[in-house]
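Hello forum,

I keep getting stuck at the same step: I have a sequence, I want structure tokens, and every attempt I make locally crashes halfway through. Rather than fight my setup again tonight, could one of you with a working pipeline run this one for me? It's a single chain of 547 residues.
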Amino acid sequence: MAAGDRAGQRFGQYELRRLLGVGGMGEVYEAYDTIRDRTVAIKLLDVELAKSPTYVERFRRESHTAARLQEPHVIPVHDWGEVDGVLFIDMRLVVGRDLKGYLAAEGPMPPQHAVGVVEQVAAALDAAHRIGLVHRDIKPANILLTGELFAYLVDFGIAHAESDAQLTSMGSAIGSFAYMAPERFEHDNALSASADIYALGCVLYESLTGEIPFKTDSNLSTIRAHMMAPPPRPSARTGVPASFDRIIATAMAKDPARRYASAGQLARAARVALLHADSQVTRASVGPTMVAPPAVQSFPPRSSQASGPVGYGEHPSGPVGYGERRSGQVDYQASQPTRYGIPATPPREHPSAPLPLPSARDRGTLPMVVGALIAVVLMLGGILAWLLLSGNDNGGTASGPGAPGTVTTSNPGTVNTTRPGPTTQPGNPATTPATPAFIGSVSGTDAQGFAGNPRCKADNPAYAIGRTAASRVLICRTGVGRYYYMGARNSDGAGIELDDPVPDGSGGFSVTNPGDGTRYTVTAAALTIVSGGKVVANEAMIEYAHR
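Reply #2:
Ran it on my machine without issues. Output:
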């Protein structure tokens, strides 16, 4: 049966109105449910594929998997079953098109939009990974976008649970080569959630640049590139901030152990990279200033004036998709617990930010206050002049060897000695460099660090403050321009203090523990701890500020 031939026909309780798209295992139709009186999306397993027990099992798997995932970025499944020997899935109808079609039509996304999409897909992936499911086919064609860029992750037909028996024979690969992790090409490697994280990194790269990570002329060359070539640098394309290079390098690391620990961690690191890039732009244009982090991205309800539904998968007639977005706003970070169960803290203005201007009522008293201050200064100046003149008359040392800038002491039988006197008042910028303002902000902190622990010593300002899901880190500067590192673990409060961290010139620091050689690297993207030549921790920064 040709694609779309069922349009206009009756299928059980459904009236199949029109073909929306063709997916990997069948067709998706807009349909009217005559019993429940609603319009839905119906996915039908291809007649030829229905002859294969393997594809039948995959189709059943998709219906069960999607029904288990109660997550806003997974399209809800209403029902599934079989009509006249044809398997079907009844899903919510969504108006939109897939990310592949979006990029083809609109070109690369602005970084803030690319990060917003990745955050939403990461939420769906984390929900799947928490119940032991690996999607195995993360790619732009399986990410459906509404007009407001609300994202849905679709096509769980090849999702795999580690406890399941493989549905494919040895030597066959499931997924798209352009987004497959290196370990996917080695049969002796167990599949894990890290493969989905690698693929999500590929999607972020393509969203930023409009190109797949490795452009080759054959599947064999693509496989070789994933296994051997270094991760590409998105900043090679004009308009992509260099801060995203490290995000892609970590997400697409050859060794799964060196990748982000979760899809959510990747999304948070990408958000920090975006914030860091915005901070650099602000500094370049207006100089050092306080930059508050952007609010967590949320998406307003879809307008009723939609451009018309499109279908899921790829179809010659144009962009495709299915489902209807869930009403209400979705706050990704607020809905996701941190790795240690600590909820994300909403960003706030840093305590060192400039105070607000006085109100109009307060400004009316300002001239009176200024006048009073001027009078006090003039009075004090007169008293000081009188004292100096009095001292001169009495043989004091206000002139001669004891002129301003020196102090003279005289005792019978001793030689007069002089020492330099102060040339500026304490705190004068001529002798004490001003402390620059923070770039970024971290909740629950002030100029000395965290409100609790860790915290810089009394006269040592904080120069970098960071919070991860597991740790709090702080860089302090001493009065002689040296630094020290302080770290605290959230789980038990254990802390460490190390001398002489080295600044990297972009707001980050690195320091080595002389006792055991462990190296701590602090950047706006992550806290990385390396011991014995191995990365023992790579914690994405949730909040970060530096001077």
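The longest strand covers residues 534-546. If your local run keeps crashing, start a new thread with the error log.
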